[in-house]
Structure formats: C-alpha cells, structure tokens
Write a structure and sequence with these properties.
Blueprint (H helix, E strand, L loop, with lengths): L8 H4 L1 H8 L22 E10 L2 E5 L5 E7 L5 E7 L5 H4 L1 E2 L6 E3 L11 E6 L5 E7 L27 E7 L4 E4 L12 E6 L5 E9 L11 E10 L6 E8 L7 E6 L4 E6 L14 E7 L5 E6 L8 E6 L5 E6 L6 H12 L6 H5 L3 E6 L4 E4 L11 E10 L5 E10 L5 E12 L1
Parallel strand pairs: 6-10
Antiparallel strand pairs: 1-25, 2-3, 3-4, 4-5, 7-8, 8-9, 9-10, 11-12, 12-13, 13-14, 15-16, 16-17, 17-18, 19-20, 20-21, 21-22, 23-24, 24-25
Length: 423
C-alpha cells in the first residue's frame, strides 16, 4: 500500500470539496478601547469593506497586529505573506514569508517555496507561528500529469501529505515538527492551534482514506495534542497523544479557550446518515489533567446544516463561525443528489454549499447573522465565508470569502474583508 495509491474520480473531486469548504485564518490584533460583551449579547455590523484581494486569511496576532495571509504564486503554489492590519496600503506593505527562507531544519530550505503551505496559527509570543507544509515528492506528484487535481489534496485546506512546521515570525527559519514521509499514503495534518499559553498544540491527523466515500468524503482523521518542548537544541513535540472519538471521521481544531477547552468541528453521531462530513457541527471538549479529552459537548446540534471555521472573541463570550443556517433546502437537495447519484455525490459540496458568518455565545445559542454574501448576485458563482479572526478589542473581524463557479465548483476568486462592529 505504501508503493501505490489509486485516485478514483470521486476521490480526486474531493480536492474541490475540501478546498471549497476550508480556507484560512485565526486570531486578533490591537486597538484602543477594549469592551467586554455579556453572554447572549449580539453585535451590530457598522461597515464591511475589502481588506485584501486575491488573498485568503491565515492568522492574526492579537498583540503585534500582524496578519498572515495566503496567496498563490504564478505556479499555483500557496505562499505566505505578512502585513500589519493597520497598514495604509496593505497590498504594497505586505512582505513574503515563504519565498526566501534562510534556514530550515528537517527539510532543504530551497524546497519550501516550491511546496504548498498555510493554515497557520501565531504563537502567543508573536515570535513564531505554526503552519502546514506539503511533503516534497509526495505521492500526488506522480499522478499530476494524468490527474492534475491530485496535488490539490496536498494543499493546506485538505492537508493530505502535509507536515507541521514551526516558523520564525519573519519566515527566516522553518523547523519540521512531524515526520511523515513522501511514501506515507495515509498521512497528513490539519489546522494546528496553540493553547493560550503557547505550551501545547492541537491538530488533526489523517489516519485513513476517503473510502467508502459516502462515509468518509474528507478521509479519516483524529485529534492529536502535544506539548512543545523549547529547552532542547531545537523545539520539538513531546507527550504526543491521540484522542480517538467514536462515531466521527473528521475533526478540525478551531481554537482553545482559556480554561483548556478545545473547540473543534466534527461529524460525531452522524455516521448513519448520508455524507456525515457534509453536516459538521462545532464541538467542545476539555483537556483533563490526565491528558485525555473529556466532557464532550455539541455546541451547534444541526444535522441538517454545516458549521465550522469558528473564532473566539477576545473576551471569550462570543464565537464567530461559518454556517449555512439560512439555507433551508440544503438537506433536501443533498438527499435528492444522493438519490440521483448515490456515492457520486462528491460534487455536491462544491456546487451547493453556500455560507455566511454567524455569531453565537459560548453555550451555542445563535445570536445573529453577520454577513449576507449569499444574498448577493455573484454572476454564476456562489460565496463561501471561511476563516475569521477578531481584533484584540473585539470590534473588528477579518473574514475570508471564496467564490466558486455554480456549475463546476472551481474557484473564481478570493478576498479578505474587514468588518467593524458595535455593541
């Protein structure tokens, strides 16, 4: 199995499925007057403007105000850039982080610009960030001529054949944290997140294929946690733990809370339904003193809708998240597609999923819908709100928007928007 991999059409189309749903960002900047929301308090949107075009949000540091964003280069490779959120001209003032690394540990530095990278998270210190990097010469490269979409599975939003890297804030040093190789067919990582004190990481790790496709359309994943050891010659992950959860196949960390709870997106409990991963909920679990996850709680509880890409307000009371709660016919259309196509429903997500940004409290009670991109005319395309991040004062949210062609599901454009809020 390590020597070959089969890319049936339904799995190849998974690259579009995954990338249509998952794109990029996390966390907050600085500002003047801080406010604290009360549980159950909705916020009013004062303005919404485009911050960066041809860019996807990746991470926003609450203290330094530095925004990491992703952008494809001329060869279609995802590169990382950094810019201050308060920049007068964000496009002109952005600096590249991944095109000219000076040094790397665990990989040749010269390879990094040629590899997909992204899905980053800032360390609380602001001196480092963690990100995913494609494994060079991974199996998809062997099939790229005959199956051009195959390498899309190695992009950061899909995570197949990726490793975790710790990176200096200026992009000068890249340190490999996980050790998957190009021959590992069942390998990959997704959405690494630092704990609030920066001592731990949580991420999703691939453990199985997208087979059968109707049960595992995004492949099979599990949650992992580890401590980051800084006292060694180079930072390393230690005390790595796997957290298997029954009746679930996809687990995506969203953020940690101050009380060591991990918020993640998952399809737990929907294994008897068609395409459980198309019904993601937001879950909460506590990392106990024993190092085990406990007290799991479903925050959204909506098997007929889709929620993920959540970000926590700085006061810990509110959560912004992407969802299609406005789409009352989503479940009916999915069932109809199943009746017509059976296991070949793989194109449904890229053609049918439309999302906006919502607001809920920590108990999971939806308070308001913050964006209405789905109500606009996008000229034969449909919008997906994806990752979001809060400013440190809780009055600004950056959010990524991707447009997909209605017929093919192919990406048309992407941009980062800045939203101003009032209590």
């Amino acid at each position: 199995m390590k020597d070959r991999i089969i890319f049936p059409a339904r799995v190849v189309n998974l690259s579009l499925v995954f990338m249509s749903v998952f794109l990029l960002a996390t966390f907050p900047p600085s500002a003047s007057k801080k406010f604290t929301s009360t549980p159950g308090q909705a916020l009013t949107v004062l303005s919404l403007e485009k911050f960066l075009d041809n860019a996807a949000l990746d991470a926003w540091h609450p203290r330094t105000n530095e925004v990491i964003f992703m952008r494809r280069d001329a060869q279609g490779i995802w590169q990382l850039y950094k810019v201050d959120e308060m920049a007068d001209n964000p496009e002109a003032e952005a600096v590249a982080l991944s095109t000219r690394p000076l040094r790397a540990i665990g990989i040749e530095a010269s390879l990094i610009p040629r590899l997909h990278k992204g899905s980053s998270d800032w360390h609380p210190s602001g001196q480092w960030f963690v990100t995913q990097v494609e494994i060079p010469n991974n199996i998809s490269w062997k099939y790229v001529r005959t199956v051009p979409e195959a390498r899309a599975l190695a992009e950061p939003g899909a995570g197949w054949w990726n490793n975790l890297f710790l990176v200096k804030a200026d992009g000068s040093l890249w340190i490999k944290l996980t050790d998957f190789t190009a021959d590992d067919t069942e390998s990959g990582v997704l959405y690494p997140k630092f704990s609030p004190d920066g001592s731990m990481l949580c991420w999703a790790e691939k453990i199985g294929p997208a087979q059968p496709f109707d049960r595992y359309p995004f492949a099979q994943w599990v949650l992992k946690t580890a401590r980051l050891e800084w006292s060694l010659d180079e930072p390393q992950l230690i005390d790595i733990r796997t957290h298997p959860i029954r009746n679930g196949a996809i687990f995506e960390p969203q953020f940690w809370t101050a009380d060591k709870k991990i918020i993640f997106a998952a399809d737990i409990g929907y294994h008897r339904l068609h395409y459980p991963a198309y019904r993601l909920d937001l879950w909460e679990a506590e990392l106990g003193r024993s190092g085990r996850l406990q007290n799991l709680r479903n925050l959204t509880r909506t098997k007929f809708f889709y929620e993920e890409q959540a970000s926590l307000a700085p006061d810990g009371n509110l959560i912004a998240f992407m969802a299609n709660l406005f789409d009352a016919s989503y479940e009916a259309r999915m069932n109809e597609a199943w009746r017509n196509s059976g296991s070949e429903i793989n194109s449904f997500i890229v053609q049918e999923l439309v999302t906006d940004l919502y607001l809920m409290d920590r108990r999971g009670r939806v308070l308001s819908r913050l964006t209405y991109f789905a109500d606009e005319d996008w000229d034969n395309a449909h919008p997906l709100v994806t990752r979001s991040a809060w400013s440190v004062d809780g009055r600004t949210i950056l959010v990524s928007l991707t447009l997909r062609n209605n017929r093919t599901g192919n990406k048309v454009s992407e941009a980062i928007y800045r939203m101003q809020l009032a209590d």
